[in-house]
Design goal:
Helices cover 76% and strands 0% of the residues. By secondary structure, it is mostly helical. The chain is flat.
Length: 192
């Protein structure tokens, strides 16, 4: 006699991806005319939702700490680019470095250190994901940069939406379906 298999739950991270799509599209609408400070307010929840969705999908312990570290790195990157007169994205390397240091310190302070390598890899990649949303703020500082920001945010929204559709169509291999569909549609949408 075999034990019954538990029913499959909803796709992990689906609410975070849908929220990221909505906020990215809102940012795209504001990008052409809004000041950079308004874009920070829109981009920060996108970074939070993307980091939370990624860490949920990775299914590692210490998710809350990872979301805090990744969102903190995203906020630091946003402020760095929003407060400079002529921002360059080269300074974001330092933000990523500090995010990695914060993730390592979080692992050292964690009481139960199971799956340390998995958790550290997931948290560091969440930091990269959150910081990767910030460069459109540098584009917003140049002439006609708002149009480029809008295109980048639409591509982000298309990527997240296509990833969700791919995960629903191929439920057996959710991560592969999300990545494949998101990559193809996001790249095409960004190029268009």
């Amino acid at each position: 006699m075999t034990a019954p298999t538990p029913p499959r739950s909803r796709v992990p991270g689906i609410s975070a991806s849908v929220g990221a799509v909505v906020l990215a599209l809102l940012g795209a609408l504001l990008a052409a005319s809004a000041p950079r400070g308004v874009l920070v307010v829109v981009l920060l929840p996108v970074q939070l939702l993307l980091a939370a969705g990624w860490l949920t999908l990775a299914a590692v312990p210490a998710r809350v700490a990872g979301v805090v570290v990744a969102t903190g790195a995203g906020l630091a990157a946003d402020l760095l680019l929003a407060l400079r007169a002529m921002p360059g994205i080269g300074a974001l390397a330092g933000v990523v470095g500090l995010g990695v240091v914060a993730a390592v310190l979080g692992q050292l302070l964690r009481a139960e250190r199971s799956r340390v390598t998995d958790v550290l890899a997931a948290q560091c990649s969440a930091v990269l994901l959150a910081v990767a949303v910030s460069p459109p703020l540098a584009l917003a500082a140049i002439a006609h940069g708002g149009q480029d920001v809008a295109a980048a945010l639409v591509a982000l929204a298309l990527t997240a939406a296509a990833g969700e559709v791919g995960a629903l169509l191929v439920p057996r291999h959710r991560l592969v379906a999300r990545a494949g569909a998101g990559l193809v549609v996001g790249a095409g949408g960004g190029a268009a």
